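Researcher: Excuse me, tokens okay?
***
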Amino acid sequence: MSEIIFIVEESNEGGFEAKALGESIFTDGETIEELKQNIKDAIQCHFDKDAPKVVRLHYLKEEVFAA
């Protein structure tokens, strides 16, 4: 695997949450920079060898407004 994709959403408690597609990797962070570091750490913990070299983040933002 050369690439791993994470879905990033704002957390209800503040900060951000990330979930990997196709892998059981979940992490969070108060800032985007902290989240990125936590993602790197989680990837290293999840994969003993052959860890992906590229991380792709897909940001989801939900917006609600009156019609």
In short: The chain has one domain: 3-60. The longest strand covers residues 3-10.
